[in-house]
Amino acid sequence: MSSSNVHELTSEHQETSSSIEMGWKAFPLTQYQGLWIGPKYIPAVMACREHFESHKDDIILTTLPKSGTTWLKALTFTLINHTFHDFDSHPLLKTNPHDLVPFLDPELYANGQILDLTNLPSPRLFATHLSYNLLPVSMIKSDCRIIYLCRNPKDTFVSLWHFHYQFLPDDVKPAPIEEAFELFYKGISPWGPFWEHALGYWKASLERPERVLFIKYEELQEDPTFYLRRMTEILGCPFSEEERKGIIEKIQRLCSFESLRSLDVNKSGKKGLGTETKIFFRRGVVGDWENHLTAEMIERLDQLTQQKFGCFGLVFKES
After folding, report:
1. What is the pLDDT of residues 135-163, one digit of tens each?
2. Are 222 and 316 in contact (CB under 8 A)?
3. Would you name the residues annotated as active-site residues?
């Protein structure tokens, strides 16, 4: 894997971003073609969109932040590599899932660098927070597989709010939950708006179910066996009858929230630019919103979700 010239932000591209939003404090956001992202990530997004060449057997994991990204990376990595690694000495035991499955943006194309990814072993496994309409054209046109994990917007918001203040300096107070809620409700959140992001992948999964799998976080928790089997089908790596005996249960145990959180690498380790891995593991439960949102907040989010998703048949189970 090699890199070449850094992708520069031209005046033409600068015009596609606007409206700096500082309400999240730790996550200053700007709107790039309808998507709210950190200004520093725009060169990476542009470089990825313009230069990433998708292979037919690529696997792309897509989420909004705090929707089960770490879990999805762990499950998929383990699933497609189950014949290469023994569970007693598995890479996940010593490596954080985010280091095993890199983000195309902002990691691989960080600062707009242009990479040569052609020699990576197949199937190549990547992750992104990009909305469906902003995925590289080659990704849309190819036969690569896309798995999207979506979480109830109430839990997504609460988890994001907690995650946000992990990045604040000690002398800076986090935004009150009421203030953060108003931003989220208006669609202003990292890689949001939530509703447009989820709906793009939901529609794609209906139009091309053979290559886009839409999974709801709540249902994955409720029946992981069913969805692991669905993942093997869409990824083209079904288990033999002999392999199926106990293998899915082993994957579930290894990749469970409790198991991953208990590992030293995820309790005291660091990844990337020194980010502590423990911040990726808070509670991982369904329905934590009940402990944080007021009745008015719940009603407003439920009404907005029904308004955005109702006519498309996208609904979420409550706790």
Report:
1. 999 999 998 999 999 999 999 999 898 88
2. no
3. 129
